[in-house]
Amino acid sequence: MPRRRHAALFLVALSALAACSAGPSTRPVIAVRGGGDGQAPPTTTSGTRELPGLEDFGGRIDWSDCTAVTKTRMSDGAPTGGLTYDCARMSARLDAPSRPGRGSLQVELLKVGSGKSALVVLGDPDGDPGTVLAARMAAALPAELLRTFTLIGVDRRGTGSSDGVQCVPGPARLGIVESDPAAASQERLLEHVGRASQECVLDMENQLTALDSWRTAADLEQLRGELGLGHLNAIGVGDGSKVLTTYAARYPSAVGRFVLDGAPDPTLDVMGVAEARAVAAQEAFAAFAADCAVRRCALGSDAEERFTALLEELRATPLRDPAGLDVTAGTATRAVLVGLAERGRWAELADALVAAEGGDGAPLARFVAPLVGGTEADPPRLDAGIVTTCNDTSSRVPPERVAALAEDWGSKHPLFGAWHARQLLVCGPFPVPQLDKAPKLEQTPPVLVVSTNADPVTPRAGTERVAQSLPGGVLVGWQGGGHGALVNSACAAGFAKDFLVDGKVPSDNTVCPP
């Protein structure tokens, strides 16, 4: 039976996070066809509740074995060992703004582990779907954690098998990924994002307005009830952390043990976020280059110079991948950003850059393949990433302002500044949502917030501000690089295990070595 895809206007969730400061960005939010992001983040009072105890989960979800399918979805990254996986689908309320309380969509779930307590896992809308993320985490986290908890991965609305979004036309999808951030004109990129917006509005109907963090938080509340739990325990990676802070504001009495592994900055406007990511990506590349030099990888000790030279070569002569993707300067830049975020693939990224120097673009193309291609179970991730991102902010930056930012940031942050500036065009033609008003966040139990020193997706400074703004926020900082610390740092994972399993809250501002 074919999947129904709906469409309409966007309604975007506001991060329910409290902001203690104005943040480093002083530039105003520029809104087209709407106001700013609706309101400042809710204020907090200093209040920390006792950390809830653990509960056995049960409920009425009908699980079935999906081990073979899950290993196929993880492809070459499937972990070895005896882990098995069970999957289920939960029917959630669509609740589009134009039809409040009406309609439904399917949310895909996966469970792994033998523990009696449930630990929900949620990630970025353009990254591994939550079901795959939970399967990968299960292989990387301390074994004691999986004896206490069963991980339950959730594919966010529009991702993976949760009625996955596939509304951007193929040529537009490729055009967005291949777009050169240093091109003299941004008109081609504007054409591609305009086509993406037009087709998504026509194709998705009411579903378009309902793919946001606000309603994803409601899905988690329904899941808590389905599991028969009084409190929700969860790990949020990257943008998944924003969903958990939204949940905390909407359902404060149901908050259990939360771990936020890299969290979006609640204090910055969209331009401030983009520039912060450009800076952080440059720092992550420096960490990657240093690691490469220590390992004596094929890139040698001048990774930045060679990457810059490769981009110039690709501007002159793009490489053709057999799958149909042109490996342009834009493709290579996005591939490197994807690779920098995945710490475990740094060696693969170095080899891919060397292969591209030799005329073989296929290894680089593999880094962006999940964004532009997919299956019914795992549709192209670019689509859900665009829809959710544009639904979660009402800010739109005019093209002329983007052009000026691209020139400015390209000079100040030469590796990734212009790329991040041009990405501000993507939401421009999408409908501007009205944001739901987040309740005042007054109290939480202790919340463990983990930052990564060189995180190109959720920069360290922003994650630190999240910890400061939560009434019960406690920060553990990992001095390494990549997006997220729990699967990369045994130290950070150990603190998370102690917190989740034993209720041990670490000292604030604890530091884990690289």
Description:
The termini are far apart. The strands form two sheets. Strands 1-2-3-5-4-6-7-10-11-12 form a ten-stranded mixed β-sheet, with helices on both faces. α9 (303-316) crosses α11 (346-357). It has helices at 67-74, 130-140, 143-148, 170-178, 187-204, 213-226, 239-250, 270-295, 303-316, 329-341, 346-357, 362-372, 381-391, 399-412, 417-422, 460-469, 490-502; strands spanning 64-65, 86-93, 104-112, 117-122, 149-154, 232-237, 255-261, 319-320, 326-327, 447-454, 473-481, 510-512. The model is unreliable at 1-46 (pLDDT under 50). α16 links the parallel β10 (447-454) and β11 (473-481). The chain is built from 17 helices and twelve strands. With 514 residues, it is an alpha/beta fold. 58% of the residues are buried.
List the helices and strands and how they pair.
Blueprint (H helix, E strand, L loop, with lengths): L63 E2 L1 H8 L11 E8 L10 E9 L4 E6 L7 H11 L2 H6 E6 L15 H9 L8 H18 L8 H14 L5 E6 L1 H12 L4 E7 L8 H26 L7 H14 L2 E2 L5 E2 L1 H13 L4 H12 L4 H11 L8 H11 L7 H14 L4 H6 L24 E8 L5 H10 L3 E9 L8 H13 L7 E3 L2
Parallel strand pairs: 4-5, 4-6, 6-7, 7-10, 10-11, 11-12
Antiparallel strand pairs: 1-2, 2-3, 3-5, 8-9
Helix pairs in contact: 4-5, 6-7, 9-10, 9-11, 10-11, 10-12, 11-12
